[in-house]
Design a protein that fits this description.
heterodimer; A: 242 residues; mainly alpha; two-stranded antiparallel ribbon; 11 helices; 69% helix; elongated; B: 126 residues; alpha+beta; Arc Repressor Mutant, subunit A; three-stranded antiparallel β-sheet; 5 helices; 63% helix; 13% strand
Chain lengths: 242, 126
């Protein structure tokens, strides 16, 4: 292999390593989405190209250093992006969590809805009694949607970078099913037999509706987030293949 | 040689940059005006700002993208990802219909401000 081509490859390798480590550092120190990082990376590369064009004698790592300085420190960059406003999915997630919090304090059903099945659970009590009861009795099913909700808390605190589609679909499925059940119950208030005992669901309380709505909102927020966070890499790769 | 350097330094010291509040206020009409001329991307927009202002508007590289994203969120501009000839991913922005309307409003406002200041300065009071 010719020495000049070896040097060319070394320069490219040096630049790529430098840009990758810059991106990783920025990703760790800020809450910038992959798309925002993609755009900043493109800018950095354009700036490096210009520096190398203006001064061909400049070492690639020096050009990268100049470009990085012009772009600004990661903390300053994150601050500028925060000033521009938060993404829509964060407001939706916040609203979902506010609803979820409120639902835990509201009753699941009205006083008239005392059931024959699970009579030990106070139906008119606030919804947070349900997970406690479920924990005490070892029920798994009522815990799953609440655990799934708890898993979205890091996204609210900006420290969660995973797209976790399964979580979005799990929460969404619980929310939509619960709403569907509620609506079906509103339309037809007939008694339902569960495990041979008669259960009636005449008056679903505000806690139930808020809880179900919160799940739908959080699922919608996560869906919007995964769409906004989808890196341009996959899109351009698809375009290239097409 | 020393004289030339001194003159340049004095010149640079005398030329004060536009203060940051004005830079921030003019960022929206500036970006919209540039995009009215056709699709463009971040780095190119930054270069055009520098060129149009003769280097007097000091936009930091990091300041531009939050402005672009805010305008995109407000529906004034729209972005799309493209693959460049060099195989690099790049986001191109274009003006939307809403953006064109906002640019027309901004242009009128800035002309009104500029006109009033010009009249005031031309009257000899300043």
């Amino acid at each position: 292999m010719a020495p000049s081509s070896c040097r060319g490859e070394a320069v490219v390798f040096e630049l790529e390593t430098g840009i990758t480590s810059w991106r990783r550092r920025l990703e760790r120190r800020s809450s910038l989405s992959p798309r925002e990082l993609d755009e900043l990376e493109d800018h950095l590369r354009a700036r490096v190209d210009l520096e190398l064009e203006l001064n061909p004698a400049l070492a690639p790592h020096r050009a990268l250093l100049v470009a990085r300085e012009r772009l600004g420190a990661s903390t300053a960059l994150a601050k500028e992006f925060t000033k521009a406003g938060r993404p829509r999915w964060r407001y939706l997630l916040l609203a979902g969590w506010a609803m979820y919090g409120a639902s835990l304090l509201l009753p699941v059903a009205g006083p008239a809805a005392l059931q024959t099945v699970y009579a030990e659970v106070p139906w008119s009590a606030p919804a947070h009694h349900w997970p406690q009861q479920a924990l005490a009795d070892g029920w798994i099913l009522p815990l799953i949607p609440n655990l799934a909700m708890a898993m979205t808390l890091p996204a609210l605190l900006c420290s969660w970078r995973s797209r976790a589609r399964w979580l979005t679909w799990t929460i969404g499925a619980f929310g939509v099913s619960a709403l569907g059940f509620g609506v079906a119950n509103l339309l037809d208030r007939s008694a339902v037999a569960i495990a041979g005992e008669i259960a009636v669901y005449p008056y679903l309380g505000l806690g139930y509706w808020t809880w179900s709505g919160a799940h739908v909102l959080v699922a919608a927020a996560l869906l919007l987030r995964s769409h906004e966070w989808a890196s341009a890499r996959s899109r351009t790769r698809r375009a290239r293949n097409a | 040689m020393y004289f030339v350097v001194c003159v340049t330094e004095v010149g640079d010291r005398m030329k004060k940059p536009v203060y940051k509040e004005l830079v921030a206020a003019s960022s929206r009409p500036m970006v919209l005006s540039i995009l009215a001329g056709g699709e463009s991307y971040g780095y190119e927009i930054l270069n055009k700002v520098r060129l149009l202002s003769g280097g007097e508007l000091e936009w930091s590289d990091g300041m531009l993208y939050p402005v672009l994203h805010r305008l995109e969120r407000d529906g004034l501009i729209a972005g799309r990802w493209e693959l460049t000839e060099a195989g690099r991913r790049r986001k191109y922005y274009r003006l939307t219909v809403r953006g064109k309307r906002r640019l027309a409003t901004d242009r009128e406002s800035w002309r009104a401000v500029y006109g009033a200041l010009e009249l005031s300065w031309g009257s000899g009071r300043v």
